[in-house]
Amino acid sequence: MTEPREEVSVGEQRSVAPDVEESGASCDEARLIARAVATAVAADGTPSESQASLLRAVHRSTRGLDVDFCALEPLGPAELAEALAATPPDVRHRIVHDMVLGELILRPIPPEVARRVGEYAAALGVDDRYVRVARRYAQGAFGLAWLDLRRSGFAEHWEDARMDQLKTTVRLEDQLAAGAEDSALAECWMGFAELEPGTLGRSVWDMYRTRGFGLPGTVGGASAYLAQHDFVHVLADYGTNLNGELEVFALIGRADPDPKGFSWLATLVGLFGTGYVADAGFFTGNLEERRLDSPEVHVRLADALRRGQALCDRLGVDLLEVDFHERSATAVEDVRAELGFDAKGEAALAAGSPGAFDPAGMSPIQRRYAASLDGGGMDA
User: Fold this and answer.
1) Do the domain assignments include residue 180?
2) How far apart are CA 88 and CA 84, in angstroms?
3) One domain, residues 120 and 265
4) Residue 75 has pLDDT above 80, yes or no
5) Most buried pick, 123, 199, 202, 300, via CB within 10 A?
6) Is the pLDDT confidence value at 184 over 70?
7) Is 166 helix (H, G, I), strand (E, B) or coil?
8) C-alpha–C-alpha distance, residues 102 and 48, integer Å
9) Quick check: 276 and 145 in contact, CB under 8 A?
10) Does 313 lie in the same domain as 166?
11) Which range, 138-142, 148-152, 158-162, 235-239, is most confident?
């Protein structure tokens, strides 16, 4: 994006483009969307078991309609476009992203599925570059897809970040490389240790301490920009293992009013769910473990999308543009209330979504490090 960025203000929450159910549309319209999504992503006439489970969870969580995606009548692009002619553009974008998500969990992606999703996007008037990313995957051109993904918005997050909010002087192009030093930034993060327990800054510092994470500004530490998402880990109460990363980036991606926010989820799905992306520069995936085959992960991912969508509708800003440093001395609960974070849904909790300081939300390496600390390190 080349337009000047507005100052991020969360004091004045706003409502933008509600989704189907919130706009007062009938359940019939939500069912039409489900029929079209199921038709678009089905490889053999019917969505796979994993696709149906994920899309059912997403539809139920974000649109309030529980429907069996394997038992729906087909609906073509023209019929969907006619039914949604008056629907706001951002809602149509969300529908296309649901389709892309449904095809991204296939490996390999059948070329006919990639073409079909492109037809739906065109019919809805959605010029979305992530449709092209999925088509590259379908063609087996993983390297080109990764380049497209970076150009389609993933890299823009870094390029457009405001340096003042990041509290760093390190050039953004250098932040992707581990080991960037910034003594002022490191001192700022060390100062979080002196804050009162329960404040945002102290909680994030405790999360770093119990996991052995390098502080931003230190050798091997997270970049100032990537560290922004760690504040969201605490505010959204998500763990820091791979499933927790899927949840937090699903929330962050859907909370971004710019469609490029989907790049976070597309990258993490490709990295952790399917193996399409082997290395994102800050995470390395285990290509042998297909996390998106789990119904429990489907429910947790869907709830994260719901929470992110609600934040988008309230705030209309990219969460990674919020100045969390200026809120570091504020209680976590107060920052949650200010920004409008919804609580986790009951279904996500029942599916095992652990909190930021729950041992179940840590990777085995992180748990071993926490256990090595005095007192076990689990009382943060």
Assistant:
1) yes
2) 9
3) no
4) yes
5) 300
6) yes
7) helix
8) 10
9) yes
10) yes
11) 235-239
Could you check whether the bond before residue 108 is cis, i.e. omega within 30 degrees of 0?
Answer: yes
Of the candidates 294, 284, 166, the one whose C-alpha atom is nearest the C-alpha of residue 230 is: 166
Which residue in this structure is represented by tokens 């599916």?
A: 351
176 burial level (CB within 10 Å; 0-12, 13-18, 19+): middle
User: DSSP class of residue 176?
Assistant: T
User: Is the pLDDT score of 148 beyond 70?
Assistant: no
113 and 189 together in one domain: no
Query: Which of the pair, 142 or 299, is modelled with greater confidence?
Result: 299
Tell me which DSSP letter residue 260 carries. G
Helix, strand, coil shares of the chain as percentages rounded to 5? 60, 0, 40
| 279, β-bridge pairs | 284
The number of distinct structural domains making up the chain is 2
Nearest residue to 153 (alpha-carbon basis) of 129, 185, 121: 129
Which pair of tokens denotes residue 26?
A: 């009938």
pTM of the full structure: 0.82
Domain hosting residue 271, numbered range: 159-380
